[in-house]
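BUG-272 | component: ligand-complex export | severity: low

The export step for A1CAB jobs runs without errors, but we want the raw record kept on the ticket for reference. Input record follows.
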Amino acid sequence: MSNTNRSGRLSVIGGGQMAEALIGGLLAAGRWTPEQITATDLSQGRRDVLHDRFGVGVGADNREAVAGTETVILAVKPQVVADVLEELRSCWNHHLVISIAAGIRLAWLRERVPADVRLIRVMPNAPALVGAGMSVLASHESATVDDERLALGLFESVGRAVVLEEELLDAVTGLSGSGPAYVCVALEALSDGGVKMGLPRASAQRLAAQTAVGAASLLLASGSSPSRWQETVLADCPPAARGIDALLRAQAGSALINAVSAATRRSRELGA
Ligand SMILES: NC(=O)C1=CN([C@@H]2O[C@H](COP(=O)(O)OP(=O)(O)OC[C@H]3O[C@@H](n4cnc5c(N)ncnc54)[C@H](OP(=O)(O)O)[C@@H]3O)[C@@H](O)[C@H]2O)C=CC1
Ligand SMILES: O=C(O)[C@@H]1CCC=N1
């Protein structure tokens, strides 16, 4: 039996970073073919990248792309979604629309598309670019079980995907949606610390990044909580205990909590 997806055709409106990650993941997973996918972007450069890299159909005409497909991923920036939906106003015909725009609520989308359109909101994150994403889905009541399964399959092709209530999606945006940026801040600082203590910059960056991958993998594999792991390290490793003491005195934990809170509030503002 063919493993190819039988859900028809997919258009991705906005051919930027997330579109590239998703299209790459879908094709690599082998469940969609390039012939099933069309991506649109304003820029010829982005269209060329997506066409040359993946062989998918590309275009500048969002209306044409949507008319030729059953499932639509809205992958433009949040500030552009209203204009795109206005442009597409007369193009809908029982579509499934999956929006990945930060902060944009299902109720807000519902007011801008006809009643026969089914809606799912997703918050992915940047590591989707390398197949290590974390995506959280929230389905509108209009979406069917099959729609949710289809959407889960799409985002599982670029990492892990789970379903949560929509009211949690701003906090998800503050944590996993924006979190890769905080980890990069931490990695830069860890690298700076290594350089300060005598390591070459390239080595320090490599050590910091692989340490983060290793620590996260350990945590996921163990099913344990971060604080339990920290206690284990404290008990067994005097240098790490001294380092953690320095972090606690600098209130590094509070700084990260503030980062998640601030990004969550910003996501709420985008949807207001
Ligand atoms: N990047 C991330 O880490 C994450 C992003 N998201 C969400 O994903 C969405 C896309 O983000 P990302 O891929 O990073 O953004 P990008 O800016 O990389 O991609 C958006 C693309 O859409 C194009 N575009 C703008 N207007 C239109 C239009 N009217 N029709 C078609 N294409 C258009 C843009 O072109 P141009 O640049 O020329 O304007 C750009 O190439 C956003 O809503 C964001 O909130 C969600 C989670 C994580
Ligand atoms: O570019 C964005 O909108 C993303 C979504 C989460 C954080 N930043």
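Assignee comment: Attached the raw record above. The radius of gyration is 21 Å.
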